[in-house]
Amino acid sequence: MTRTIPQLFDLKGKTALITGGSRGLGLQMAHALGEAGARVLVSSRKAEDLEAATAELKAAGIDASWIAADCSKEEDIQRLADESLQRLGAIDILVNNAGAAWGAPAEDHPVEAWDKVMNLNVRSYFILSQILAKRCMIERKSGRIINTASIAGLGGNPSGMNTIAYNTSKGAVINFTRALAAEWGKYGITVNAICPGFFPSRMTVGTLKAMGEEKLASHAPLRRLGDDEDLKGLTVLYASDAGKHITGQWLAVDGGVSVVTGG
Q1: What backbone phi and psi angles, to 5 degrees, belong to 49?
Q2: What is the pLDDT of residues 112-165, one digit of tens each?
Q3: What is the rounded CA–CA span in Å between residue 65 and residue 31?
Q4: Which residue from 2, 148, 210, 227 puts its CA 20 to 30 A from 219's CA?
């Protein structure tokens, strides 16, 4: 029989690993997956942040745990994969969300900062996806990979915002998503991307102070910034059977900013 909407979005019995999951967008996505019934495992660099995030998730009735790892380091990615599979048995849903940004004019942008951004925002997504696909998703003919991109990956920035490495990395994530989806569809693995607009977070606090919330919100047709609920619906759609026929896609969650900028 055709399933109902609640049945299609139900993630009970599923497991999810969220990198960069201790705060901000990653923690919001962890809440979404856990609220839909998945067991969630969050990862980031700092144990104290992860302890606080896991306590918050558990207080919401979510089966949550954590592993500290620095996804800019290949050995940490391997350890994260090993420990995640040991704890959960298999990973059904991978959210590649760990990320970094760096602001500097292109002519003065440090090469080492470029490499730092690329290693975390692109290389880590590939390595972790590859490991988990080879160790569980391909054999099981099932898997969901969700990559956090950005509307910054759709084009340039307004005057005064100099984040060429970040923009380039997020553009790479979008095409990484398309290419991986095309290759791994035969294994029953879907690969999709979320392109958030401006959400207040620790990473964006500098921009918020410099430009002001009202000015940033004015760029969006909806005249608001993203909040703690705005990624939840799309995350669960991509992760659940409600989205089982969606792959290789990106969707901007930006209040309409990309509509008016032509992204």
Answers
A1: -65, -40
A2: 999 999 999 999 999 999 999 999 999 999 999 999 999 999 988 777 778 999
A3: 12
A4: 148
Asked if 60 and 70 count as a contact pair (C-beta separation under 8 A), the reply is no
How do the domains of the chain map onto residue ranges?
Answer: 5-255
pTM passes above 0.85 = yes
Q: At what angle do helices 164-184 and 111-118 cross, to 10 degrees?
A: 30
Which residues are catalytic, by number? 166
Q: Which of 169, 176, 138, 139 is nearest to 152 (CA)?
A: 169
Structure tokens at 148: 């956090």
